[in-house]
Every structure is written in structure tokens, then in C-alpha cells.
Amino acid sequence: MTDDKIIECYWRREECAIRESDAKYGRYCLAIADNILYNREDSEECVNDTWLRAWHAMPPVRPAKLKLYFAKITRNLALSRYAARTARKRGGGEVALILDELSEVLREPDEVESQYMAKELAAAVNSFVHTLPERECNVFVRRYFYSEEIPEIAERYGISARNVTVMLSRTRGKLKQYLEKEGFV
Hints:
Elements: H1 3-11, H2 16-37, H3 40-57, H4 66-88, H5 94-103, H6 115-129, H7 134-144, H8 150-157, H9 161-182
């Protein structure tokens, strides 16, 4: 079923929307959640919650790119679940490492900072990512959006893990300069 037809099913409140979403994007969303949570049961629950969130959001939301819409919902649910899980026990893990890497560039918002500033920052980061060469952009997104491990990224692009690490470090440096220039850091 096409994305437009799946969206129409959500808008008409037809149960086939969830079944078709899971058939077409279930494995994709499961991979995203699993890259963050490393727990099959929690990841499957995030995917199921993704369909529920989509059900409640459509209408009025009509996503332009259904795959990315589901990815964003799944990622946010998985990050929330990860935060709740690690709030009880602070520990290592890939997500903690990723957040630590980005903490060099992005500061945590304080209570006074508005949602508007957070949206502006997200737009600035998005703008920055689109200025990167294709491979550098893909590596950055794979690491910081999809939470993929460095060896996995290296294998995907046929480069060494060290090369990926250096590329990410340089990209974070460029991001920091970009955000400084834009007045965010």
C-alpha cells in the first residue's frame, strides 16, 4: 500500500492503517528503537506506541514523508524510554555516549529557555546538516538520529571506524562553529 493510502486510512479511522504501517515500516522502526534501547521487548513496545501516536495525531497532521514521520515518533519514544530507564540507574551504553559526544556542542536548555528557542535550534541544526557533503551528512545522521554504532556506520560506508570517529569529531566542530555564528552557543 502506498504512503498516501496509509495516511488516508488513518484519516478515515480504518484499522488497516496500523496493520499496513506495521507491515511496511515495522522492521524499520524496530531497528531505530533497538539501536537506542538494546532491548527487543521495549523496542517492540515503542513501535506499537508509534502506531498509537500516529493514530491520535492523524488527523489533523498529514505527514509529508510517512517513513520519516514514523522514524521521528519511534526515536522520541525510544529516547524517552531510555531516559526513564537510565534515570533509575546511571550507566553506559551507546545513547549515553552519543549524548555525551553532542554535549560538547549543544548545551542543555534551562527552564527559562522557551520552546521557540528549541525549535529554532532544531531548525539551525537541520540547516547545518543540509550544508554537509552527502557522506558526511549521512554519517552524522546515522550516528545522531538513528543512534547507530561507529563500527556499523564504518561497515556501511566502507571506511574504518577511526575514519568515522574523526569525521564525526570534525563535523561536531563545524556544527559548534555554525551554532556560534548563529548565536546559539
